[in-house]
Amino acid sequence: MSDPRAATPGIAFALIVLGTILGLAGTDLVLPAVPSLPDTLGGTQAMAQLVLAAFVAGGCIGLLAFGELGARIDQRSLLVGSLVAYALVSLACMIAPSLPVLVGLRFVQGLAGSAAAVFAPGMIRAMFPEDKAVGALGFMASIESLIPALAPVLGVWLLMAFGWKSSFLALGGLSLAVAASVALLRHRMPPPPSTRAPGSYVRHLTNPVFLRYALSQAFTLGGLLIFVFGAPAMITKGMNGSLNDFIIMQVAGITFFIIGSNLAGKLTQRFGPETMILFGSILSACGLISVLAFALLGGTEPLVLAALFVPVNLGLGFRGPPGFFRAVIAARGDDARGSALVLVAILVTAAVGTALAAPVVTLGAAPLAAVAAAVSCASVLCLLALPKLEA
Fold it and tell me: Please, are residues 140 and 120 in contact by the beta-carbon 8 Å criterion?
């Protein structure tokens, strides 16, 4: 008798991707409404920015919480519960009577919506053989990379057409729909790969093989995010450019990231995961080093900056899918905790690097590129210093 999951891997994969996208959209879809919130709910603009920060903070705690729960409880049930809770809190945000209440709800919203991101790598690993799983992760990453670009545009349209509550209504309604679909197709979803898996976060944090892949993933992606987060201020204040220059840089970068991540599966099958992880890490680090050299030589042309930023994204596309997949394998059956730690490491790296670069982002490209390049080079050092997975 054939495996019932084999008939609908595409549907299961689509639901997993949709759940992850909805969690990511919790920041970008709401972003356009943030400046107008003090006029509607009272409070200050600084308090309004906490609407974004609280969601991210809740998300970090949620990643670790669902990583722990996913090692003990059926991940399919947790995914449904997470999506329902995320939907209900999203709808509750619509009736928040004040800005402080909305900030509190956003913290809970971020916490509730973290399950899909934690469970997706392990479920995809259970759904496909290794070569196809790397390709599937690359495809998912390419879709997710479009969210920061497209969700704010949709958020502006919702804000202008229906008001600030509409983005929360969209998140709530879509999350309920995905939750219902997962519940109905639960028997055709991949079984949890690590239910009641032995282990702990401490075991992973003291495992040099796991740290090789987790930290190198975090440092490569973190270096890119540090530069992107500081680029608008750096371009407009430090290079006398415009936000259009930043948009051009982002569009070029995202395009080549999508190309790289979708080629990652085939290239990994041909050259091996370790080769692609190291090559992608070096390529991304060299891209940021070239940006630093360009700035130190007095370069100020935004289009050149955009061209130099391409290999940073392409390198991440090449190494991202196999790197994350190897981190999950290195967790030795404890997929949920392993995935959670990788994601938290990425967020912490980006947050700390952004904070360090914040005082110098208006001084030109060199200081920001130096911080980002140092973090990205640390990824290569991790790969050279820490042991590989055994064949």
Answer: yes
Q: Which residues contact 95 (CB under 8 A, 6 or more apart)?
A: none
pLDDT tens across the length of the chain (391 residues): 344 444 457 788 888 889 999 988 888 788 788 888 888 888 887 788 788 778 888 888 998 888 888 877 888 889 999 999 999 999 999 999 999 999 999 999 999 998 888 888 888 888 888 778 888 887 887 787 777 767 877 888 888 889 899 999 999 999 999 999 999 887 777 665 544 555 688 888 899 999 999 999 999 998 998 888 788 778 887 788 887 888 888 888 888 998 999 899 899 999 999 999 999 999 999 999 999 999 999 888 888 999 999 999 999 999 999 998 899 888 887 888 888 888 889 888 888 888 888 788 788 889 999 999 999 999 999 999 999 988 6
Do 260 and 277 touch, CB atoms closer than 8 A? no
With vertex at residue 218, the alpha carbon angle to CA 18 and CA 58, rounded to the nearest 5 degrees, is: 55
Spans of all domains in the chain: 4-188, 201-385
E strands present in the chain: none
Backbone φ and ψ for 383, nearest 5 degrees, come out as -65, -35
Domain 201-385 = CATH 3.40.50.300: no
Same fold, 4-188 and 201-385: yes
pTM of the model: 0.80
Contact indicator for 282, 261 with CB cutoff of 8 Å: no
Domain 4-188 belongs to what topology? Answer: Growth Hormone; Chain: A; (1.20.1250)
Cα–Cα distance, 21 to 161 (Å, whole number)? 23
